[in-house]
Amino acid sequence: NLKVLSLSDCWLTYLPPVLGELVCLEELDLSENIGLAEADFSLLLSLKNLKILDLSFCEVDKTDLVLAELQ
Prior knowledge:
With 71 residues, the chain is mainly beta. The protein is 8% helix and 13% strand.
């Protein structure tokens, strides 16, 4: 029942599919992963309990439709 996960500055270039299974997750820190600029964030839509998503310094398109749904 993981609620907080920090993957900050891990050189991620994609989101591991297992993230979509962490349904109890409330906070996810993906900051400082510049390689996520082209990542598919749709798997995060299954995280209904997610309250905080940190994408600072990731250079992602904040107008991405999936990211807009997460807000």
